[in-house]
Design a protein that fits this description.
The chain is about 60% helix and about 5% strand. It has helices at about 1-10, 30-35, 35-75, 85-140, 160-170, and strands at about 10, 25, 145-150, 155-160. By secondary structure, it is of the alpha/beta class. α4 (about 85-140) crosses α5 (about 160-170). The protein is rod-shaped. It has one domain (about 1-170). A four-stranded mixed sheet has the order 1-3-2-4. It contains five helices and four strands.
């Protein structure tokens, strides 16, 4: 909704040449707090962000465990007291666990990017809806321009309530936001087989 402030700072409307200019203003913050869809999207995104933070902690724990196992495998791979086969197996285990760590990191990064893309799309959609509603209400009030209330607090007409009513007229009866898909859980690290010495 921050971008809406910039969008609405001067929303000039093509209403033809008029002898007297008529200006309106809106309270962007009130619209953001009152528009059901903005609130629903915000709640959904906050829940998804929380799940990502929990997943990040889980992955971090898995990576820490794998790192310890990799250190042990590397030590075994360099242990001259072990047979060449056992040293090779330990080296392969270390390489496999290193690849597993990279997969965890890449998978998490994909989920973060998906979340960021979804957040940007939601914000853009809300901004477009709010902007269209402002334009519609401004035209019906024959306003030449609409400003943010912070920029023009004493404009002729405050259309905030009308814009909120217009936006909320699209609210479905059941506005419970659908739960966002939970990010995939990080698999548990593979158990290390005890090396025979």
């Amino acid at each position: 909704m921050k971008k809406i402030l910039a969008i609405v700072a001067v929303l000039a409307l093509a209403t033809g040449v008029a002898s007297a200019q008529k200006f309106g203003n809106i309270d962007v913050q009130r619209i953001s707090q009152s528009y059901w869809k903005a609130q629903s999207d915000s709640k959904s995104l906050q829940e998804e962000q929380q799940r990502l933070q929990e997943l990040q902690q889980q992955i971090r724990g898995s990576i820490d465990q794998l790192s310890k196992e990799i250190d042990a495998d590397k030590a075994d791979s360099e242990n001259a007291a072990l047979s060449a086969d056992k040293r090779d197996a330990a080296k392969k285990d270390a390489d496999d666990k290193t690849a597993q760590i990279q997969q965890y990191q890449q998978s998490f990064q994909v989920q973060v990017q998906r979340f960021q893309r979804r957040a940007q799309e939601a914000q853009s959609a809300i901004e477009a809806e709010v902007s269209a509603s402002i334009k519609k209400i401004a035209q019906s009030n024959k306003l030449n321009a609409v400003f943010s209330a912070q920029v023009a607090p004493y404009a002729d007409v405050d259309i905030t309530d009308a814009v909120i009513d217009d936006l909320n007229s699209t609210q479905p009866k059941d506005t419970a936001a659908p739960a966002a898909a939970a990010p995939a859980a990080a698999p548990a690290p593979a158990a290390k087989a005890p090396a025979a010495k």
